[in-house]
Backbone:
């Protein structure tokens, strides 16, 4: 069963994920998203982390994987509204400034 | 008061996830600091993920044992044992991680959140010992 919902806003894909971003869900998420990105005319990915209470190194690797696709697929990639725990973990691994983070819906609308 | 408890699980993603939740529920009875609990959850997930990936090479059939003890005056200790492939090497003193790396942060996270980490190999067992001073949290 999919753990994500993808909302298409013009050329932006807003990826909603509910639940922990941890080892046991990553393979499926990666497969679903890689397949989605390949099949769509999508120029911007936004990972909604507002309903993601917890992340581990696998989840971090997944976000880095999506971010790395910016170069290969000429995509923009953003995190949206990460929870406090996610921010804390990204800070711990010194990736807080590596990702571009959006906090308001208005910022998403401006991108789309 | 000395607290000690042993947990065991099959070395699968789902079983380890359940194990971690069980351990966290146990720790939640004794720890007051929710931020510390989240840190410990992350450490346990990373440690178990390493066992699944490196010790058992993602193959089913293995077992993970986790012993928690609180040794006075203020040291919380996790001892994680597996019967997988020997761990080659020691805990690095420095890490060379680039932001673009998609893996390899688990051990780094563990070293950042715990005060002391050691590996040992005894007979057929890999033994990971992690300690943290939790003065004032029990």
Residues:
């Amino acid at each position: 069963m999919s753990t994500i919902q993808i909302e298409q806003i013009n050329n932006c894909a807003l990826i909603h994920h509910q639940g922990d971003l941890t080892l046991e869900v990553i393979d499926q998420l990666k497969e679903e998203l890689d397949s989605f990105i390949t099949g769509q005319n999508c120029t911007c990915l936004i990972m909604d982390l507002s309903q993601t209470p917890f992340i581990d190194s696998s989840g971090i690797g997944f976000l880095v994987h999506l971010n790395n696709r910016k170069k290969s697929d000429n995509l923009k990639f953003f995190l949206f509204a990460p929870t406090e725990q996610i921010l804390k973990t990204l800070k711990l691994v010194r990736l807080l400034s590596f990702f571009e983070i959006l906090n308001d819906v208005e910022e998403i609308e401006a991108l789309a | 008061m000395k607290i000690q408890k042993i947990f065991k699980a099959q070395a699968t993603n789902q079983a380890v996830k359940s194990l971690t939740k069980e351990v966290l529920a146990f720790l939640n009875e004794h720890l007051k600091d929710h931020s510390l609990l989240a840190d410990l959850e992350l450490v346990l997930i990373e440690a178990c993920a390493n066992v699944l990936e490196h010790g058992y090479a993602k193959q089913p059939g293995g077992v993970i044992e986790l012993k928690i003890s609180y040794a006075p005056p203020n040291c919380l200790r996790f001892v994680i044992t597996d019967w997988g492939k020997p761990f080659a090497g020691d805990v690095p003193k420095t890490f060379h991680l680039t932001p673009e790396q998609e893996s390899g942060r688990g051990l780094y996270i563990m070293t950042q959140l715990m005060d002391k980490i050691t590996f040992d190999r005894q007979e057929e067992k890999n033994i990971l010992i992690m300690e943290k001073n939790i003065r004032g949290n029990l």
In short: Strands of chain A lie at 4-9, 12-17, 44-48, 76-80, 101-102. Chain A touches chain B at residues 22-24, 54, 56-58, 60-62, 64-65, 67-68, 85, 88-89, 92-95, 98 (CB under 8 Å). Residues 55 and 89 of chain A are 7 Å apart (CA to CA). The longest strand of chain A covers residues 4-9.
